[in-house]
Amino acid sequence: MVRWQARAVAVATLVLGTNAAAQPSNDMRRFDGTWDVSLVCPASADGQGYHFVFPATVTDGHLHGQHGTPHQADSLTYEGTIQPDGSATISANGLTGDVRYNVGGGPQGMPYGYHVTAQFEATHGHGKRTDLRPCDVDFVRH
Questions:
Q1: Which residues are paired to 80 by β-bridges?
Q2: Which CATH class is domain 28-141?
Q3: Read out DSSP for 38-92?
Q4: Domain residue spans in the chain?
Q5: CA 80 to CA 83: how far, in whole Å?
């Protein structure tokens, strides 16, 4: 029994070591995969609060996320590169939705954009919207 457990630990160590070697900490691809993005913007003088959850994929360190249908009202696209240390600056661009949620009550279907600064780790990340209104962005890896 002890011999079997020792072999299991040795195999697990070898497998984990091989996976770690395949994605060193200086490799941008270590963040590749599917992520859920949760954008939370509390109510403020700029508009009512809202919460979006949408998917994103990371390929070769490049993040692409999409809320809604591109080029239609109430859509948002995230694009950015996650650096090997996990830091990222993400550009967000979209078209506004319901006027109650828009900064300054702007009309539906108007283009808007902002940036997010974020820090990623192996399975999660956190960011802050840096333009227009304060919002938190969380990333969770599948």
A1: 63, 90
A2: mainly beta
A3: EEEE--BTTB--EEEEEEEEEETTEEEEEES-TTSSSEEEEEEEE-TTSEEEEEE
A4: 28-141
A5: 10
Q: What angle do CA 121, 123, 127 make, to 5 degrees?
A: 55
Count Cα atoms within 13 angstroms, Cβ side, for 137. 26
- Contacts (Cβ under 8 Å, ≥6 apart) of 113: 91, 92, 93, 94, 131
φ and ψ of 109, to 5 deg? 85, 10
3-class DSSP state for residue 100? helix
Residue position matching structure tokens 């902002």 = 114
Q: What's the whole-model pTM score?
A: 0.81
pLDDT at 28: 82
Q: What is the pLDDT of residues 27-59, one digit of tens each?
A: 889 999 999 999 999 998 878 999 999 999 999
CB 92 within 8 A of CB 120: no
The owner of tokens 């949408």 is 54
What SS3 state is found at 26?
Answer: coil
The Cα 15–Cα 21 span in angstroms is 10
